[in-house]
Amino acid sequence: MSQVHYQQLNPIRLPIVNKLYKDFYPAGKAKRDETLWIGESQQKIICCVRFKHIGELQLLTGMLVAPEYRGQKIATQLLQHVIAQMQQKTCYCFAFKELEALYQHAGFITLQPQQLPHNLQQRFERYCNSGKKLIPMHYNAQP
Fold it and tell me: Where is the N-acetyltransferase domain (predicted)?
């Protein structure tokens, strides 16, 4: 595989990321008020992650690696490149259970739903009630 270059997305490229979501994660859609990070290989976006700002918090959401690049540690590398972003504001994520170890390796700790801030608890319940099997996690920034 070619070298992957990770960077914050220039908002003008939002339609390209949304095409990636439409193709591989239809429930995800990037919005202009979110901070997005991408990984590119050979001028092609192969992964992305969004940070939704909710008051003084941020929610890491919509992490996607194109199927042909999965199993190559791309998600791990992407998470390493967004550490500064995760440290800017208190950061949470709602991870699929099968990805818990990936996020733990990146510095997230697993929470009980009642440990989430109230506005995130409601969002978490909505997502779970729609059939998603998620676990709440909090980024534990190391000094």
Answer: 1-142
